[in-house]
């Protein structure tokens, strides 16, 4: 099964993950419908579009992380662990 049939599609997948988590850290979930709408203008075979999207995803990530205080990082870490069923190692 070819999930990412081209290198461009694989790179877009990586950038989407970065954008998804930038939104998630701000408490805004990128739904599949929102992602689909936004991706309609992206072509995996157009390097300039792929990397422009990557640039905007990285900008969103920098903005999200720069706005976080130490307590926010703690909250994100704990909530992320809960999503995956991981225990807080400090409890051991």
Overview of the molecule:
Helix 1 (7-25) runs parallel beside helix 3. The chain has helices at 7-25, 32-39, 47-66, 70-84. Helix content is 67%, strand content 0%. By secondary structure, it is an all-alpha fold. The radius of gyration is 16 Å and the shape is elongated.
List its traits.
92 residues; single chain; 4 helices; mainly alpha
* Coarse shape: elongated
- Secondary-structure element order, N to C: HHHH
Number of strands: 0
Number of domains: 1
Helix content: 55-70%
Short description:
This protein has 92 residues and is mostly helical. The chain starts with 6 loop residues before the first helix and ends in an 8-residue tail after the last helix.
Which SSEs are present, and which pair or pack?
Layout: H1 7-25, H2 32-39, H3 47-66, H4 70-84
């Amino acid at each position: 099964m070819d999930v990412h049939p081209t290198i461009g599609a694989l790179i877009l997948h990586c950038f989407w993950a970065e954008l998804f988590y930038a939104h998630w850290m701000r408490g805004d979930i990128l739904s599949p419908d929102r992602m689909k709408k936004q991706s309609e203008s992206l072509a995996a075979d157009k390097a300039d579009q792929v990397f422009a999207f990557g640039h905007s995803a990285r900008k969103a990530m920098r903005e999200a992380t720069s706005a976080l205080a130490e307590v926010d990082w703690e909250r994100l870490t704990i909530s992320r662990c809960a999503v995956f069923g991981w225990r807080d190692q400090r409890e051991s």
